[in-house]
Amino acid sequence: MMKMKHEQVQSEYWDKEADRITRINDEMSLVARNEISQFLDFAKIEAGMKILEIGCGAGRFTVPLLKRDVYVTGTDISQKSLEALDLYCNKLNLAHRLHLINTDFDKPLFKNEFDVIIIGNVIHHFNPEIKFEILRNITKALKPGGQIVIFEPNGRHPLYLPYYLYLEWSGRQKGIWQAEKGVMKSKFNELKKILQNCDIQFINVHYHTIIPLRLEERFKFIPAVNKTLEKVPVLKNFSAFLWIKGEKSFNKLI
After folding, report:
1. Number of structural domains in the chain
2. Does some domain include residue 218?
3. Measured in whole angstroms, how far is the alpha carbon of residue 12 from the centre of its chain?
4. Is the Cβ–Cβ distance between 186 and 238 less than 8 Å?
5. Fewest beta carbons within 10 Å, which of 81, 98, 228, 254?
6. pLDDT digits (tens, 9 = 90+) for 231-252
7. pLDDT at 175 (0 to 100)
8. Taking the CA of residue 56 as centre, how many other CA atoms within 13 Å lie in the half-sphere pointing to its CB?
9. pLDDT tens-digit map of 50-84
10. Is residue 253 part of a domain?
């Protein structure tokens, strides 16, 4: 019952938000586009790769991936988001390298098939009761030696809680707290432990951006300041995002 309720909350919220997010992606700022490009560089995406994208939504990462001449299998719990993404990619003539699946990965769908798995802003939406099982099912899809690359909010950042509560209480985005509250438990050490138990090795993290992206858009000096702050030992632990990368072990095929 707990699982059904959690998945239903997520599915209904993101179905409701699909059209709005598609518009946001289409109107994405240069700073946001550069951030995604840097993340895909961090992931070492190369032309011809087979990519599995978890929680592709309306295509924030999907479209930039496809523009790098890769083959993307995108999955999401929201059918409406997938429909919006399919329509958008057809308009851009990118849909021929895109395959979409409506799933929550409660069971494994692939085995040893993909070069890279991308999980962007999604893990905190997983049902916390079965987070390990979901990631286990996902990592089974990765080829031995393939990479899993994660873009995830850092639960230690001090602005997430007041920001989401403001959006909820003000009525600007009703339902966002239930959809996003898992971010408060999103920590690198926990994710690292889960990944290690899924036979992912050589795990490293980049603590990405301290000052919010919206300020980067207004003040040109902020990106340089962020790059400096990201290197400060204590302060970096409170970054806005975690970029995590690891490799599937050759020693154990799962």
Report:
1. 1
2. yes
3. 19
4. no
5. 228
6. 888 899 999 999 999 999 877 5
7. 84
8. 31
9. 999 999 998 999 999 999 999 999 999 999 999 99
10. no
Average pLDDT over residues 131-144: 94
Q: Which two tokens stand for residue 34?
A: 């550069």
- pLDDT reading at 23 higher than 90: no
- Boundaries of domain holding 168: 3-41+50-248
Integer angstrom CA distances of residue 244 from 126, 148, 156, 215, 249 = 17, 8, 15, 24, 16
pLDDT digits (tens, 9 = 90+) for 201-225: 999 999 999 887 766 667 777 888 8
Q: Is residue 236 part of a domain?
A: yes
- What average pLDDT does the segment 157-180 reach? 85
E strand spans, the chain: 50-54, 71-76, 98-102, 114-120, 142-153, 200-208, 241-248
Residue 139 belongs to a domain: yes
d(CA 40, CA 42): 5
Quote the tokens at residue 184.
């408060």
Domain at 104, CATH number: 3.40.50.150
Non-local (6+) Cβ contacts of 68 within 8 A are: 40, 45, 46, 47
Q: Report which of 153, 167, 170, 148 is spatially closest to residue 212, judged by C-alpha positions.
A: 153
Q: What's residue 252's pLDDT?
A: 56
pTM, full prediction: 0.89
Which residue, 75, 33, 85, is CA-closest to 54? 75
* Cα 210 to Cα 71, 103, 123, 156, 162, distances in angstroms: 33, 33, 20, 11, 16
